Amino acid sequence: MLSNADILTLLPHQNPFRFVDEITFVDENSIEGHYTFLANAFFYQGHFPSMPITPAVILTECAAQIGLVCFGIYLLNLQGIPFDNKKWPLFTSSNMQYYKKVFPGEKLFVRATKTVFRHGKLRCTVEMIDIDKNLVCDGQISGMFV
Q: Considering 13, 34, 47, 119, which one is annotated as catalytic?
């Protein structure tokens, strides 16, 4: 069985497009992790220069890296299928709702719960909260390993 650190070692995303600091919990039904959005991140330069906020697409990417890719790596391993450079994760769909702005320097927590996982396809419900437990966004995300 993979450890939380092993999962991060296998995560194919790298800086500046890696939005996972730590996986804090994972089992066959759910995963939890977090990421702190660095003040010097590339996307703040243009979104928006006078008042930088984290783009919704980046929030979705953070949720997908934790809730689909990291979770999928773990679930594949449970099935005896090692994750390697021949199995790339593909994001296939999302239905997200956003509730508050996220500013540079904020730490966010992601929890994803498996809805279905079969034949390398994963669908989850996901929620993202801030350090004060305010809901930032939630919804459903799907992906597959091909």
A: 47
Q: What is the largest CA-CA distance in the chain?
A: 50
- Structural domains of the chain, with CATH: 4-145 (3.10.129.10)
Overall pTM > 0.90: yes
Residue-wise pLDDT for 107-118, tens only, equals 999 999 999 999
Identify whether 34 is a catalytic site residue.
no
User: Is the model's pLDDT at 38 over the cut of 80?
Assistant: yes
Sheet order of strands, 135-145 included: 22-26, 30-36, 107-118, 121-130, 135-145, 89-98
Q: What angle do CA 132, 135, 140 make, to 5 degrees?
A: 145
Tell me what percent of the chain is helix, strand and coil, each rounded to the nearest 5: 25, 40, 40
DSSP alpha helix (H) spans, the chain: 4-10, 56-64, 71-78
| Residue at token pair 């980046």 | 58
HEC assignment per residue over 84-110: CCCCCEEEEEEEEEECCCCCCCCEEEE
Over range 28-44, report the average pLDDT: 97
72-95: average pLDDT: 90
